[in-house]
Design brief:
The structure holds three protein chains of three kinds.
Chain A (H helix, E strand, L loop, with lengths): L2 E2 L15 H27 L6 H10 L5 H28 L17 H4 L2 H24 L2
Helix pairs in contact in A: 1-3, 3-5
Chain B lengths: L2 H27 L13 H9 L1 H27 L8 H24 L10
Helix pairs in contact in B: 1-3, 3-4
Chain C lengths: L11 E8 L8 E8 L7 H12 L18 E4 L2 E4 L12 E5 L5 E4 L2 E2 L2 H9 L10 H5 L9 H8 L9 H5 L1 H5 L6 H11 L7 H8 L13 H5 L6 H17 L39
Parallel strand pairs in C: 1-5
Antiparallel strand pairs in C: 1-2, 3-4, 3-5, 6-7
The chains are: A mainly alpha, B mainly alpha, C alpha+beta.
The complex binds protoporphyrin IX containing FE, iron/sulfur cluster (SF4) and FE2/S2 (inorganic) cluster.
């Protein structure tokens, strides 16, 4: 009878015009899940080293180490790692109630402390992430 | 295990990973020191790390933290999807089994490496 | 409006309204031209203008039209707002698109079915429970004493009007109907921080399970949309810390600070002051 308007996983991204943190939630998810799949493959590939030099070098050839396209993919992976790590630190602090403020009277304009206060962390952490990624890009593509 | 304790471990593993993973990524891709960057994948360097006790301990900690953090996180994502939300136990069992298998394989890789190079600790 | 020097606002607004009636296959958006009747005209007034003059079949739920009853939560141009608390002047383009809150079943047009929301709300026992003071809570004889600081600890969270906007904005709710949701979780902190309450272990255990507090990942959308400034995300992150402490059993350690129980006020003085006559005899039996 009534129409179900639940958005499903699309609601993680297309839920309305909301704050940045809600988009970071989705980005954190995407990078986290991608890293899990990478980790599984990584454990299997690195496992080749237990079988000696030849197995290791074959595995490295198989995954295309040194190939420019693979290098770009690896750089994308590093972006995911650095984002997930820096955003993760914000989440660890925030989710344990550190640095997000205290209850206040909701006098207009509303304080919204729990999202306003950590915004400067986002700037600092993602700023550091950007610096790291620029340095990494130099080593990835110029001086490898 | 209580859900909250498992979650606290997830965060704790995340903090450990923050240091280990960023170090690992830097060592593997940013050639700040000899043997880092591209060179880290050369067999002599791989063998040197594989033979040293310090590296073994570090890699085992890294492996456990990453697998636990990753699979608990994946479980959280999966049980929030509507058609899996009433399948919490099944999702947990399948992912734990996968995690244990991968840990066993990684454990084997870490310990069963060729004997250390002469002259290394 | 604070400033009187403002760009002239449009004289009519184009209002696109989500329409759906039970039995229909697909929803649609209907477009109406609404003349601005006064500078402070709200979205709710525009909808009521439509209902009175253009299309009487439009279903919209409202009651207080002053942001205290929580009936009129809806999305205007993709943002969760109370229709009665949002002026047309906030949209100088002259065009608005009104839709019901996402993540609830739509009963008709802008009206959503809130029963799941209140089920989750009830699940956390949103009232003072105190087994030790049961008689006093049920038939109060005196007041509980709280310092102003103790009141500040939960006051912000008690301004909630159960409009449901935070739940509709939450990304976890979007895919997980069983998730308790920001409003219920915030309410746990509201009661657990109240020194009159003794039901905190019950509530901490209700939220310490799958689809409980751990499925909040601090997206903060609840805080962003809350029309009463309640800051549910703040309350929920505090709740996580408390639930971790309780789950690890730290709060059972001897040196862990004990929860404070609000004391009862001293009994009122029985003697009446001189010169005040006794009350007349009761005319109804004591209940
Ligand atoms: C580099 C250090 C890392 C930090 C600081 C970190 C931190 C976090 C934090 C704080 C959360 C959110 C927990 C919550 O909201 O309940 C999280 C979720 C997650 N992490 Fe990590 N993490 C890191 C590395 C990794 C790695 C290496 C993987 C993959 C193996 C991973 C996979 C995940 C997944 C799948 C989630 C769940 C995402 C979600 O619930 O939305 N993380 N991480
Ligand atoms: S917390 Fe705010 S947004 Fe959520 S139901 Fe209460 S008043 Fe509405
Ligand atoms: S009509 Fe009561 S809150 Fe809008």
């Amino acid at each position: 009878m009534a129409r179900n308007k639940r958005l499903g996983i699309w609601g993680w991204i297309f839920g309305g015009r909301h704050n940045v943190e809600r988009f970071l939630y989705t980005l954190h998810r995407i990078t986290g899940v991608a890293l899990v799949f990478y980790l599984m493959a990584h454990i299997l590939v690195v496992g080749s080293r237990a079988f000696g030099q030849e197995a290791w070098e074959n595995a490295m050839r198989l995954v295309g180490a040194g190939n420019p396209v693979v290098r770009v993919l690896e750089y994308l992976l590093v972006i995911a790692v650095v984002f997930h790590a820096t955003n993760g630190i914000r989440l660890v602090l925030g989710e344990l109630g550190i640095g997000i403020g205290r209850p206040r009277r909701p006098v207009y304009p509303y304080p919204k402390d729990s999202i306003r206060k950590p915004r400067k962390w986002i700037l600092v952490l993602e700023g550091l992430a950007t610096v790291y990624l620029v340095v990494a890009a130099y080593f990835f593509f110029v001086r490898h | 295990m209580r859900e909250g304790v498992a979650w606290a471990l997830h965060l704790f593993a995340g903090v450990i990973l923050f240091f280990l993973l960023l170090f690992h990524v830097t060592q593997m891709h940013v050639a700040l020191f000899p043997g880092w960057g591209e060179a880290a994948l050369e067999w002599t360097n791989v063998l040197a790390r594989a033979g040293a006790r310090g590296w073994k301990i570090l890699y085992l900690l890294f492996l456990a933290a990453a697998l636990y953090h990753g699979f608990f996180g994946l479980r959280n994502v999966l049980i929030e999807i509507s058609f899996l939300r009433r399948r919490v136990n099944e999702v947990t069992i399948v992912l734990s089994a996968l995690g244990v298998i991968l840990f066993a394989y990684g454990f084997y890789t870490t310990l069963a490496t060729p004997s250390p190079m002469p002259g290394l600790p | 409006m604070a400033s009187t020097k403002q760009k002239a606002l449009p004289e009519t607004y184009t209002v696109e309204v989500f329409r759906f009636a039970p039995g229909e296959k697909k929803p649609r958006y209907d477009r109406f031209e609404v003349p601005v009747q006064h500078p402070g005209m709200t979205v709710l007034e525009a909808l009521l203008y439509i209902k009175e003059n253009l299309d009487p079949t439009l279903a919209v739920r409202y009651s207080c039209r002053m942001a205290v009853c929580g009936s009129c939560g809806m999305y205007v141009n993709g943002k969760g707002v109370l229709a009665c608390h949002t002026r047309l002047a906030e949209f100088p383009s002259g065009k608005i698109r009104v839709s019901p809150m996402p993540n609830y079943p739509v009963v008709k047009d802008l009206m959503t079915d809130m029963s799941e929301f209140f089920t989750h709300h009830r699940e956390v026992k949103p009232y003072i429970i105190n087994p030790e003071m049961r008689a006093e809570i049920e038939r109060p004889t005196r007041e509980f004493l709280q310092t102003p600081e103790e009141v500040e600890e939960y006051l912000q969270f008690s301004y909630c009007i159960k409009c449901g906007l935070c739940v509709s904005a939450c990304p976890t709710v979007a895919s997980d109907p069983d998730f308790l949701g920001p409003q219920a979780l915030m309410t746990v902190t509201r009661y657990n921080r109240d020194t009159r309450d003794g039901g905190w272990t019950y509530r901490l255990e209700v939220v310490d399970r799958p689809h409980g507090v751990w499925n909040c990942h601090f997206a903060g959308a609840c805080t962003e949309v809350c029309p009463k400034g309640v800051d549910p995300a703040l309350a929920i992150q505090f709740l996580k810390r408390e639930a971790v402490v309780h789950g690890l059993g730290l709060d059972r350690l001897p040196f862990w600070p004990k929860r404070k129980q609000a004391p009862l006020a001293p009994p009122p003085k029985p003697a009446r002051r001189k010169g005040i006559p006794a009350p007349p005899p009761r005319t109804v039996p004591e209940s």
